[in-house]
Task: inverse folding
């Protein structure tokens, strides 16, 4: 096991962070965190002595553009990196290779890549409850294998699956809306990674800024925010076939 790893994550509803911390906990004794959902993420440079784990959620088979934008504030300087694309049980497509390419471009040396499962943040019945106890054991074992590779000083890059050019994904053309239960408390506006909600009137969402990450829905103390029921129903139907079997976490070394 390594001494220390820095877990850098973009996790609007917490699933990506949970999976990342389970993996990181198998790699190193001490885990520090950098939260890329914070708009004020500072520029930071790493060096060859550092090991980072960078984890992002899969949106439409890609990484959220807001995450890639913030990740560009970090410079690797030869730091070794583990990448993780965390998806909700449909598919991760080009998100993992996109993350590896970006990390390499920022000066990190990617030594391992993982595709991990977490509950689907829109269609909660998909990959429900994941990461679960079985994932916990598997991610600890993945972590041990990664630590072993890093401990040997082996520098080979993983054969990460995915296509270049990456698939197109323009985002979802809908935003969560508040209903009459909204008290105007502003919790959603404060925690919105995209600063898309008006703090003075949280019923107003800037559609051009919103990335449909579901953070506002997850944090609302009055459960007053949701995607339109019609959109929820349509997505539930589209994703129903993926509920039939349990997708497994994958590790590329
Ligand atoms: C806008 C959006 C698009 C998504 N697209 C996909 C996808 O293409 N494939 C998939 O399996 N899961 C998809 N998901 C589910 C998330 O990847 C998954 O739930 C992830 O763990 C969410 O991370 P978080 O809990 O850290 O917010 C999507 C979720 C959102 C909000």
Result:
């Amino acid at each position: 096991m390594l001494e220390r790893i820095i877990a850098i994550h973009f996790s609007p509803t917490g699933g990506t962070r949970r999976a990342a911390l389970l993996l990181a906990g198998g790699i190193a004794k001490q885990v520090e965190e950098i939260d890329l959902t914070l708009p004020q993420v500072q520029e930071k440079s790493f060096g060859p002595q550092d090991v980072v784990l960078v984890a992002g959620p899969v949106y439409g088979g890609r990484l959220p553009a807001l995450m890639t934008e913030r990740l560009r504030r970090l410079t690797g300087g030869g730091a070794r990196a583990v990448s993780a694309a965390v998806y909700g049980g449909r598919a991760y497509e080009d998100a993992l290779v996109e993350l590896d390419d970006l990390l390499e471009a920022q000066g990190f040396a990617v030594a391992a890549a993982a595709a991990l499962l977490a509950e689907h943040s829109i269609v909660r019945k998909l990959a429900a409850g994941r990461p679960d106890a079985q994932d916990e054991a598997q991610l600890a074992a993945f972590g041990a294998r990664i630590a072993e590779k890093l401990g040997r000083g082996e520098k080979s890059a993983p054969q990460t699956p995915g296509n270049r050019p990456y698939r197109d994904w323009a985002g979802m053309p809908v935003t969560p809306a508040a209903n009459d239960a909204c008290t105007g408390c502003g919790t959603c506006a404060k925690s919105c990674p995209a600063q898309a909600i008006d703090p003075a009137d949280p019923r107003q969402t800037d559609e051009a800024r919103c990335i449909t990450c579901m953070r506002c829905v997850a944090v609302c103390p009055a459960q007053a925010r949701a995607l339109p029921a019609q959109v929820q129903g349509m997505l539930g139907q589209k994703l129903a076939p993926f509920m039939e079997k349990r997708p497994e976490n994958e590790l590329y070394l």
